[in-house]
Amino acid sequence: MAKKTFEQSMKQLEQIVQELESGDLPLEKALKKFEEGIQLSQSCTEMLDKTEKKISLLLKDPDGKPLESPFKTTEASSDAVEAGDD
Amino acid sequence: MQSPRTPQNSVYTVSRLTADIKSLIEERFPFVWITGEISNFSVPLSGHFYFTLKDDRAQISAVMFRGQNKNLKFMPEDGLSVTGLGRLSVYEPRGSYQIIFELLEPKGVGALQIAFEQLKARLSEQGLFDDKHKKPLPFLPRKIAVVTSPSGAAVQDIIHIAVRRFDTIQLFIIPVQVQGAKAEIEIADALDWLNTLDDIDVAIVARGGGSIEDLQAFNSELVARAIFNSTIPVVSAVGHETDFTIADFVADLRAPTPSAAAELVIPVKQDLFRQCLRFKNSLNVGIYNYIEKRLLAVRELSKRLADPRRGLQDMRLRVDDLTARYLRATHNFLRLRHERLHWLNERFYTHIPLTHIKKLNEKLHVLNNNILNLFKIYIKSKNFNLSEVMIKLETLNPQAILSRGYSITRTIPDAKVVKSAGSVQIGQNLEILLAKGALTCQVGGKSTDGEKNI
Asked: Is residue B22 part of a domain?
C-alpha cells in the first residue's frame, strides 16, 4: 500500500466503490473491500495532507548532486519567504 | 544569330511561347526565399493579398492567397520589408509572372524562420513529434521541476497558480538562462540532469513571451532532443498562446502559457479532497446498502422458513378429516348394499316358484275335477239325447208311416216324390208305395184343389 501513487489509490478506491455498489460481492469480500477502501481513502487524504510545501531552487553541486536552496517568490504568500522586495 | 528559319522551331505562337516560359520558370523556381519591400498592397473582396515586392533596382508582382495569409501574425503594409517563401507562377492570359507566397515574415526574422521551418521539417520527419512518443502526465505529481529563469514572470505565474490550486505542492525551480547564447545548453543540461534524479514526476519548461529571437533556445535542436529524450513527462510553456516553438512540438504537452502549464500539471487540492471524501461517503453508503440489502434478503428468506409444526398440525387435521369422510363413505356404501340386499331378498321370497307351483297344482286339480264332472254330465246328456233321437228316428221311419196307412207317390222312372197334382200329367204312370208292396197306376184325372177331388 505504501508505494502506491495518489492516482493509483484513487483509482483503486473508485473501483472498490463501484464493486461495492454493484452488490455482487460475497459478504466477506465486501467487508474486506470496504476496509481496504477506508484505508485507501485515509491514505489518499493523508497524501494530500502530508505534502509539505516546498518551493525551492534546485541546483547542481560540483558532483552533480541536487542542492536545494529556498526560492524567493514575489507572491505575498504567508510562508517562509521573506517579504518586501516590491 | 543566323539560325535557320525552320517553321516548326522558329515561329512561336504567343500561347506556345508563354507556355514554354511558364514551364521554364515554374520548374526552375518551385520555391524561393525572397526578401524585399512591400508596395501597392491591396486586399480585394476575395481576401487574397496582392502587392509588389521591390528593392532598389527591381520589382516583382506578388500574391498571397487567403488560405495562407490568414495564418500571418502581422498585417503587411506598404513600405514594410519582408522575407517570404513562395513559388513563381506565370499567368498566361496576361503574360505576367508573379510570386505566390506561402510564408511571409517581417524582415530580420527571415533567417531564423527558415531555420525554424527546416528544423521543424527535419525533426517531424524523424518522428520526434509523433503522438506515440507523448507520455501521459501524472495525476498528482509529487515533485514538479520547473526549468526556467528564476527572475522571469513565468516562474512567478507558475508558483502563483500552483499555490492557489495545491498549496502544499512541491516545486523545484531549476534556474536557467532562457535567452542568449548559453540558454539552449543550460536548458538541455537541466533536462538531462533532472532525468538522473529519481523523484521528479513532471517537468515544465517555461518562458514568457518574446520575439522569435528571444525564443530561439526553444527552437533549437539541442533543447528539442533533450525534451524528446526525457523519460520525465515534459510540458512546454513558451511565450504566448500564438507562439509555437519546436519545444512545443516535441513536448509531451504544450501549454499556451506558463500559468496554463501549472493548471495542466497541478490538480486542485480541494477537488481531490472532495473526490476522496465522495468516495469515502460512497463507500459508507455502499456498505450500508450492501448490508441492508442482505438483511432484507435474510428477512425475506426467514419469512419463507415456516414452522414445521404448523404443517404437521395441518396434516393431522387433514388426516382426521379424510378418515371421517372415509368412514362416512364406507358406512353409506354398506348401508346401501344392505338395503338393496334386503329388498332383493324380499322380492326373491315373495316370488319364489314353490308356492307358485303349489297354487298351480291346486288350480290344476280343481280344473281336473271340473273337467271330469263336466265330461260325465256331457256324456249323460249325450246318452239321453241319443235315446230320444232314436225314438224320434223310429217315428220318422217312412215304413212306420206307411204302416199307419199313408202311401208315397213317385214318378216313373225318375222316382220323384209327388207332392202336388200340378206336377203330373194326365195319363202319366205313377208308382205308389204302400206299407206292404207297391202299385203302378195311371192318372185318370186330377184337381188342383185337392180336397174336392179326394
From this structure: yes
